[in-house]
Structure formats: structure tokens, C-alpha cells
UniProtKB/TrEMBL annotation:
Top-level division of the source organism's lineage: Bacteria
Gene3D superfamilies from the UniProt entry: 1.10.10.160, P-loop containing nucleotide triphosphate hydrolases, PCRA, domain 4
Protein name: DNA 3'-5' helicase
Species: Desulfolutivibrio sulfodismutans
CDD domains for the chain: DEXQc_UvrD
Enzyme superclass (EC): isomerase
Region Disordered, annotated ranges: 633-664
Keywords: ATP-binding, Helicase, Hydrolase, Isomerase, Nucleotide-binding
Family statement drawn from the similarity comment of this UniProt entry: Belongs to the helicase family. UvrD subfamily.
Binding site for ATP: A26, G27, A28, G29, S30, G31, K32, T33
Keyword ATP-binding carried by entry: yes
GO cellular component, one term: cytosol
InterPro entries linked to this entry: DExx_box_DNA_helicase_dom_sf, DNA_helicase_UvrD-like_C, DNA_helicase_UvrD/REP, P-loop_NTPase, UvrD-like_ATP-bd
GO MF term (any one): hydrolase activity
Length: 720
DNA sequence: TTTACGGCAATTTTT
DNA sequence: TTGCCGTAAA
């Protein structure tokens, strides 16, 4: 290993830094992973026992990649560096809690629940408290779950979250607090833990049990934390608690890439690190190995207007390359077609899997997905449903879950839902009967439903088996197969294949609990990146973190979409959107294309309305990109003049026809008396009404039942 | 109490 | 488009 040659001076400094706290600010594409891997390898080479190194990462994939690369450096072949304890905070917390579960008063262990299970439980709490019945203004259970989760991650009251970002729910604040309490109580009663509990409970374990804390502080002499900018407050406290006596805590991150504030991550952690660990050496990695200089100039400009940060300016030795392009389709609908044309062009230069299309939110790629289908371009979407979230997987896992924890309500309802005539209510009663050991009630129900007796017999037989996940899963799948066929008649074979994969995964485990926890903590959503050969990549910006492509296209860079309209009111939210854009643009190696549609199609109104380019695009110096307009044929046309962000002129009047094709997209709007514009509409005060006529000045005559005809500005109407 | 159906709203990001 | 929720029928 030739550290000096393989690394640049800053990287070398980070890799060879002596003991003590170390903070590495690693700009995008600056060889962050390389630095961690080399440091890991060097420590081991210097005789540090791998088992005394703790490597905390954001995803399991990241940790595996680092460990196997370090092993390679050390000449261990393709193996993963043996002994190093690596994984996510949640997975580490789970392992620790499991080890010490008696200490914490969970003699029977516990089950980790995912977001869907939490939603369900919260729904039940809502019913129990009799809240929200017939009240349309009461938030849905998943929304409530979100609020509760946020309050825990940010460590404030639910009411605070509400008053900060959902003030329309303030009338329900008390009820929502009660639900948060009820949810916590329900989890305790059923031996369940959600993601947040894992972290808080680990903290409690370490604070209250000095012996346990000392155990870990001695066991790990070196702690390395990746993506430190995405840690929340508990996670930072956990690091402090775990910090070894040697003081060897290394945090790596980039404050400019902090994009998880919505779930409690705070940039403060990385900014405060040197204060919390006095004597911290701070090293900045600023040389970028990924992108061309023109792309970096744009990304640096995006950061220019950011608030508090570690100042850094990325530079590259790759001075060549085209400027980023600003692509201007007529609308978000024609954007999809224009993107396909662009993708075809890029695909002449790079394989498809070197091209990615990124967007702010999952739904923004729907139109493109349709066009890609028509154009026969294969693609792979990231951020979609994960393997372990697929319904059939959860269905099958419900059986072993009942075996592992007979108090698990979500698991019971799932199993029992396959017995005809048994719904949520009966399922709940049966679970109670099981809990109380009320054999009479169970027998009675079993007599009534023959299939129920079968199910109980089956579950008992599972319980009687030795606790090996492999065989248990095999039986569960066999038992479930008929239901699968019934539930997914056309999709049956594909899902069965998925279950066989699950069986494979399960047989690699020796403990049922560990399998179940892993399935909720880190779904093996595989290395489909490399596995699927030549697929275009579609991804949300969040899921693109840490990845890179030769060419990157970014969709919908207009106000309300990116930045998202939810982020427009508060400054800190807007700052996060800016960093999100920064992350997106820094994924590109050679080509970056930014789509800025001139109009957005409004489905309800059936028209396209003009939009402003994204705030972040507007503030960019025009010289940093090239503008390309959409021609009538859908082909891009380079513009000789520099970008100009005067608000786009309305195509005709206040509305244009829906863009069904490139040509019709700019046909003149129909005359104002066109009957197609005389449909039904809604008004905040008068309710539903019928438009009788369109008048000058954007006004309409509308007939509201019960109120009679009124003259209304169409801005105040919502079309149906 | 279950199940089927239809209306209706919403649609950010996720360990 | 989906998916949630309330309603009505069985």
C-alpha cells in the first residue's frame, strides 16, 4: 500500500492523522469513501484489532462497500474485513438492545416495527380514543404517524411541530398529543419498538447502566461515523456516550449535503463537533475527482447564497467539458418527451446505466416513465417500494412474527385476514384471547371458522419447530402459497420468486429475531444497481445520495416543485432545498441538464399555466449554463442568447390548451365562450357551481345552487 | 362485523 | 393515478 501516492495531501492527512477526535469535511466527490477505506486499512495494518473498530454508516450498502474495499487493500481478497463492527445506527442499536434486553426490562425481547406497522397501530389508537370520527379535518393516521415521528426526532412536543408547520391542525393539538401517548403505551404493551425507540432506548441503556457503557467504550477504541451531517440529536448524543477513552472519534460528512432535516437531522451536529470534542483536528477535502470544472462552477454558485456552513470551494483538474444545459420545454408534459430525446442523444455517448434522471419527489417521474415505455428505453426506478415492504413479503413474514412475539398486533391481523369472515375486530379479540390464555374463547371461535382452527394448528406447529429461520420460512411459504394465488392471480409467479428469495435470505440466519429485525431495519434491496445491466436510472434526489453518473438530468426546476412548495414559508426549509439541489447537481460527472418547463399542466383546470423558474435557477449567473429551448418537433434547439428569466409570457390569455403533442402545445387557447370551459367549479364560500359564461378580465358568471348566479374572478374558482 | 363499493383527496423526502 | 375512508349491503 502506497498511501502517499494513492492519496492527495488532504486525504493523506486524514488517513494518517494521529489519535484523538477528527472531523473530515468532505466535499461532494472528494474521495470521502476512499479516505475512510484507507484509514480503516491503515489502522488494521498498524495492528489495531478490527473488532475494536466501530463504523457507523447511513446504509448497510455503504458499510459493506467500505469494508470490502478495505479488505481488498489489505489483501484479504473480496472478503469483507472480518471483525469490524459496521452498520447503521439503528442496526447497531438493535444489536446492543438485544444483547442487553434483560437489563432493560424486556425479558421476552421485542419486535421492531416499520412505518406501515406504526401507521396501523396509530389507527387503532385513534379508534380506541374515539377520535376523528366523521371529522374530515382530522388528519389521517399516516399523517399523525408522521407528526409523532417528527416530534420524537426533533425532540419537541407534537404541538410544537403542529404550530410550526401544520397550524391548520392546531385545533386537534390536544387530541394528537393524546394519540402520541396512546401510541407509546400501545407499543409498550405489545413489546414493540419503532425506529426512534431503538435510538432512545440505547441512549437510556448507556446512560443508566454504567457497566454497559464502559463495556462499549472499552470494546471500541476507534469510532468512525459517516454522513455525520445527517445525524439527529440522539445520534450525536450516542456518539458522545460511546466515545472511547482513547478519544478516537472520527466524523466524516459535508454540511452542504445535509438533506434529512425533515426527520430530525441537524447540521448543528457537524458544526458543533469541534466544540463537543475539544482538540478536534478539522480536515477539508476540496479537490473534486468527479465532475468537470463547468459543472463545479454551477454547484459552487448554488452554495454561494447558503447560510451557515464550513466554507469550501470545490475545484477539479478536469477543466474540459461542456457547460451545464438549461433545457426549456413548453410544459412539464412535453418535458418528458424532450427528456427522451435528450436521453437518446446522451445514450450515443454513454451506456444507459451511466445516465440518470433525478427529481424532487417520486411522482414527478410518472410522465417520463410513460414516455420511456413508449420509446422502449429500459429504466430502473430508485426510491420505490422496497423488497421487504412488498405486501406478499410482509404477509409471509407475519407467521414467524407471531411465533416470535405473540403480542404483535400487526402480525396477527395479517395472518388472520386470510381467514374468511374474520376482520380487524375479530382479529383483535382473538389476539386478546391468546394473550390471556383464554382457551375457551379460542376453541369457540375455531369451531365457528374451520380455517381458523387450521391456522392455529399451523402456528403451533411452527412454534414447536427448532428456531431456525430457514425451515420456518419454508413452511410459512408453503402454507401461504394458496392465499398468494388467490390474492394475486395474474402476478402469482413473480411474487413466488420473491418469496423464494426471502427463503434464501432466511436460511442465512441463525436467529429468527435477527432475521425479522433485519427485514425491517435494512431491507436487502439488493445491489440492483450493478445487477441490472443496461438500465437508465430514475431516482429521487434523496436516494441518489452517494451515487454518481456520467450524465444527469434534473426535472421540474420550477417554483413550487423544486423548491417544494412545502418549503417556501420557512427559511431553514428553503436552505435544505438548496442543499438538495446541490446534492443533485454534484452527482454529474460530465453532463448536467436542468429542465425548467415554462408552464405546468393543471389537471383539474385542464390548462397549462405559466411558472417561474426555480428560485435557485433564477439566482444563477447566466454565464454558467447554455439555454436550450424545445422546438415544435420536440427537438432541443440551442439558444444563442443567454438565459433570461423574465416571467414567461402567457401563451394566450390566461390559459392554453392541454398539451397533447408538441404542436398542439402551442395552439391558441379556445375562444372564451368555448363550451369546454363551461364546466363545474368550486368556490370556497359558495361551494359547487356551474359556469354559465366566461367574461372579460378573467371573470366568470357562475350559478351556485342556493345562491343564484354570481360574478366571480376565475382565480377564486377551482375547476372540476 | 365483514366486505364491497364509490367518492374523494392528496401527492416530499425515509433509517 | 392511487389509496384512504366512510357508507351500505350481506
Amino acid at each position: 500500500m502506497d498511501f502517499e501516492n494513492d492519496l492527495n495531501p488532504a486525504q493523506y492527512q486524514a488517513v494518517t492523522a494521529a489519535g484523538g477526535p477528527l472531523l473530515v469535511i468532505a466535499g461532494a466527490g472528494s474521495g470521502k469513501t476512499r479516505t475512510i477505506v484507507y484509514r480503516l486499512a491503515r489502522l488494521v495494518q498498524q495492528g489495531v484489532d478490527p473488532a475494536s473498530i466501530l463504523l457507523l454508516t447511513f446504509t448497510r450498502k455503504a458499510s459493506q462497500e467500505m469494508l470490502s474495499r478495505a479488505a481488498m487493500l489489505l489483501g484479504h481478497g473480496g472478503d469483507i474485513l472480518p471483525g469490524v463492527c459496521g452498520g447503521t445506527f439503528h442496526a447497531f442499536a438493535y444489536a446492543a438492545l438485544r444483547r442487553h434486553h434483560q437489563t432493560l426490562g424486556f425479558p421476552q425481547g421485542f419486535t421492531v416495527i416499520d412505518r406501515a406497522d406504526a401507521d396501523e397501530l396509530i389507527g387503532r389508537v385513534k379508534d380506541d380514543l374515539g377520535l376523528g370520527k366523521g371529522d374530515k379535518s382530522f388528519p389521517k393516521k399516516s399523517h399523525v404517524a408522521e407528526l409523532i415521528g417528527k416530534s420524537r426526532n426533533k425532540e419537541c412536543r407534537v404541538a410544537d411541530i403542529i404550530s410550526r408547520e401544520s397550524f391548520h391542525l392546531l385545533p386537534h393539538a390536544d387530541d394528537l398529543e393524546r394519540m402520541a401517548d396512546g401510541y407509546a403505551a400501545a407499543k409498550a404493551a405489545h413489546h414493540l419498538m419503532d425506529y426512534d425507540d431503538l435510538l432512545f432506548l440505547l441512549e437510556r441503556l448507556l446512560v443508566e447502566h454504567e457497566d454497559v457503557r464502559e463495556f462499549y467504550r472499552r470494546r471500541f477504541t476507534h469510532i468512525m461515523v459517516d454522513e455525520y451531517q445527517d445525524t439527529n440529536r440522539v445520534q450525536a448524543r450516542l456518539i458522545t456516550l460511546l466515545a472511547p477513552h482513547t478519544g478516537n472519534v472520527m466524523a466524516v460528512g459535508d454540511d452542504a449535503q445535509s438533506i434529512y432535516a425533515f426527520r430530525g437531522a441537524t447540521v448543528d451536529n457537524i458544526l458543533a463537533f469541534p466544540r463537543i470534542f475539544p482538540g478536534t483536528a478539522v480536515i477539508k477535502l476540496e479537490q473534486n475527482y468527479r465532475s468537470t470544472q463547468p459543472i463545479l462552477e454551477l454547484t459552487n454558485a448554488i452554495l454561494q447564497n447558503a447560510g451557515e456552513k464550513y466554507d469550501k470551494t470545490l475545484f477539479s483538474t478536469r477543466t474540459d467539458g461542456p457547460k451545464p444545459e438549461l433545457l426549456r420545454p413548453f410544459s412539464d408534459i412535453t418535458q418528458a418527451r424532450m427528456a427522451v430525446v435528450k436521453i437518446r442523444e446522451l445514450a450515443r455517448k454513454w451506456p444507459l446505466h451511466e445516465i440518470a434522471v433525478l427529481f424532487r419527489a417520486g411522482y414527478q417521474s410518472y410522465a417520463l416513465e410513460v414516455e420511456l415505455g413508449k420509446a422502449n428505453i429500459p429504466f430502473q426506478k430508485y426510491g420505490g417500494i422496497k423488497f421487504s415492504e412488498a405486501a406478499h413479503i410482509k404477509d409471509v413474514l407475519a407467521y414467524p412474527r407471531v411465533v416470535a412475539n405473540p403480542l404483535d398486533p400487526a402480525a396477527w391481523t395479517r395472518c388472520l385476514s386470510f381467514v374468511p369472515k374474520i376482520g380487524p375486530k375479530t382479529a383483535l379479540r382473538l389476539m386478546e384471547a391468546v394473550r390471556l390464555g383464554d382457551q375457551a374463547a379460542i376453541d369457540k371461535a375455531a369451531k365457528k371458522h374451520p380455517q381458523l382452527a387450521e391456522l392455529f394448528a399451523f402456528l403451533d406447529s411452527l412454534r414447536a419447530m427448532p428456531p431456525h429461520p430457514g425451515p420456518i420460512l419454508e413452511r410459512a411459504i408453503a402454507h401461504h402459497a394458496p392465499h398468494l394465488m388467490e390474492k394475486y392471480p395474474d402476478d402469482y409467479p413473480r411474487r413466488l420468486t420473491g418469496l423464494e428469495q426471502l427463503q434464501q435470505i432466511a436460511s442465512g440466519y441463525s436467529s429468527l429475531d435477527a432475521l425479522l429485525a433485519d427485514m425491517t431495519l435494512e431491507s436487502p434491496d439488493e445491489d440492483k444497481r450493478k445487477a441490472r445491466e443496461d438500465h437508465l436510472v430514475l431516482s429521487t434526489v434523496h436516494s441518489s445520495k452517494g451515487l454518481e453518473w456520467s450524465a444527469v438530468l434534473l426535472l421540474d426546476l420550477v417554483d413550487e416543485r423544486f423548491p417544494s412548495r412545502h418549503a417556501l414559508t420557512r427559511d431553514e426549509d428553503l436552505e435544505e432545498e438548496r442543499r438538495l439541489l446541490y446534492v443533485a447537481c454534484t452527482r454529474a460527472r460530465d453532463y448536467l441538464g436542468l429542465f425548467v418547463p415554462e408552464t405546468l399542466y393543471n389537471r383539474q383546470a385542464g390548462v397549462c399555466s405559466p411558472v417561474q423558474p426555480s428560485l435557485f435557477v433564477r439566482e444563477l449567473p447566466a454565464s454558467l449554463c447554455t439555454m436550450v429551448r424545445e422546438s415544435l418537433s420536440g427537438r432541443p434547439v440551442p439558444q444563442s442568447d443567454s438565459p433570461d428569466f423574465a416571467p414567461p409570457r402567457p401563451l394566450s390569455g390566461s390559459a392554453a390548451a392541454p398539451p397533447s403533442g408538441p404542436i398542439t402545445a402551442c395552439e391558441p387557447a379556445p375562444p372564451r365562450t368555448d363550451p369546454s370551459l363551461l364546466g363545474y367549479c368550486r368556490h370556497k364560500v359558495f361551494g359547487r357551481g356551474k359556469i354559465i359564461a366566461r367574461l372579460e378580465g378573467g371573470k366568470c358568471r357562475v350559478n351556485f345552487p342556493g345562491f343564484g348566479p354570481k360574478m366571480i374572478l376565475s382565480d377564486y374558482l377551482e375547476m372540476e
